[in-house]
Design goal:
- 36% of the residues lie in helices and 27% in strands.
- The protein is of the alpha+beta class and 655 residues long.
- Strands 19-20-17-14-22-27-24 form a seven-stranded mixed sheet, covered by helices on one side. Strands 18-21-16-15-23-26-25 form a seven-stranded mixed sheet, with no helix packed on it.
- It is globular and about 90 Å long.
Length: 655
Amino acid sequence: MRLNRLDIGSIRKKEVIKPKAAKVLREVLHADLILVARNPKNPEPFAWVRKQEYVFSPKPLMSFATICLTAILVLQSVSLSANLIGSEQRILGMAVSAYEDLALAQDDLKGQDFTDAQLGFEKAQLQLDEIAGQLNQFNPLSLLSSKVRSAQALTSAALNIADAGGKLSSGMQILSQIKVSSRGVETPDFNAELLQNRKQLSEVYNLTAEALESLEKAADIPPEFAENVQTAKTETKKLQLLVKQLISLEDLYLSLFGSGSKDYLLIFQNLDEARANGGFIGSYGVLKVDGGQIEKLNIRSVYDFDGSLTLNLAAPGAMQPDIVKWGLRDANWFADFPTSARKMMYLFEKGSQTVDGVISLTPIVFEDILRMTGPVAMPQYGVILTDQNFQEVVQRKTSIEFDRKLNEPKKFLDDLAPVLLNKLIDLDPGSWLEMLNLLQRNLARRQIIIYPSEFDGRILSTDKDFLSIINSNVSGTKTDLEIEQEAMLESNLSADGAIINTFTLTRSNPTNETNKAFVRVLVPKNSTLLSIAGNDDLPIRKSQASGFITDPDLAALDNGVEADKTQFAFWLNLPPNSAKTVKLTYTLPFRAGISYSFLFQKQPAAKPIKFSSEFNASGFTPVWLSSGPRLFEGKIEFHSESLTDDFWSVVLEKQ
């Protein structure tokens, strides 16, 4: 039985009565109780998007109000002494009252009325404190009864959750204070407030950890309430991760804008022309901030910078001989963004100034912001920008319709930036929760990449199976948003634990232009390529040119190694309205042993790939399988078409 928002319309001895309209009776019997549950209007207590990608919402607290009731209901099955039975009515009465307070607090939290929510959670805490005190009278019985211990553990969990709810409600009030404009954050003492809020969220995280510990101790639960406790565990874990991500976002802000003057290189990647970290860098900017205040924000054409760069570095081999000199526009060549970012900072220092970090943005970010702010008028350009026309208008205004005398094609973006920032000051306070969700989602999908930070787009480390498909368009045609990809990885495990992988990639081009892609497949380091078929037989040149300096990081790529991974590189040219399939077979450098795991890391900001994985472990029996894959006809199958990374694992036993 799953308890959500309960209509405690009937509490009767061993009988079920249909619930009446939202009436709560305080009638309490000391025998077995049956509560009739009403289906809530919003049955899902939490908005789940994808693995480790959450909607920032107060809904994770929605199912926890039932923990206090479940704790007391466990006691109903104990009946160990007259003293316990005599206290039962008082305890259950307080539990019902605590439930009501928690339910109201949850409604306030959901409606983003954080002040009333905080008061509601604090009121529920008082009731739960009294329940805990009543249960302490039965400590001697807890030595004999696992049911009493379970009831005490559940009450402790409910108390921690109520405390967490109150502190979270208090912490979320900072959202109503946020004011942002083209001058930066205009909220008085915002950084100090955020530091205090960060401490409070840490307390919430610790309370969820304590609640989980208590829930694990509740081992003796009547079968009819087992689902409640399992739901509480699941939701508490989700809440804990959600709070952790809120802390990460606050840490990110404080590291970027917390104190002191800092300069950041902004790069704007065009997804129509794929590159390893997103897309071609057509525009760049310099953002100077001091304690959250914007002191300078300029956006320019990348060709302005590259035209003045005197450093003669040889371009990546795949670009030669068409492009010999390496510039900022092509510096995002490495699949590992920290490596690309350090190269950008190096080039920028040689041609302009030093910067403290790099922030990468794609058009998707601006579309999401426009979806929140509504249309933005640019009367001097005769356009109104929306989330639907953003890419088309920007492409036209920066490539075709610009003042040829001024010759500043990116001036449109430079003029747009302050106008868009000033729209943020008009956001309703309740919209900042959605803005946090927007930010988190784009960080998870690597539409935003920030170096240095934990969201730096690095190639992930693992000592097990790994795959990443990196496409770079070097022909200049803006076709990549139309390209469709399907990939299949078939892994065969031999009796001695050796693994042979067969990887198949199909790319389809429905456009009327040729798409010329340089494809890199990253796999575990020291994997051995056995065969490749279906690729275009074109030379892959070294990253060197006469009279130019050879970059050491590019030289390492030429040797087939990046970010501690082996890379298999090849050309795949797609004429208009065509499709091609490439097949690679290779051996992994390790043996499976008793376990196997697989990590598929997606290319930053790329479209979803229709991906399938098949693990054939004949001679072995899976004894544990993570969520995601399924066992079918002796093989483990996994399918995905997500915008985030995929991971699955299995524990094996030899037959």
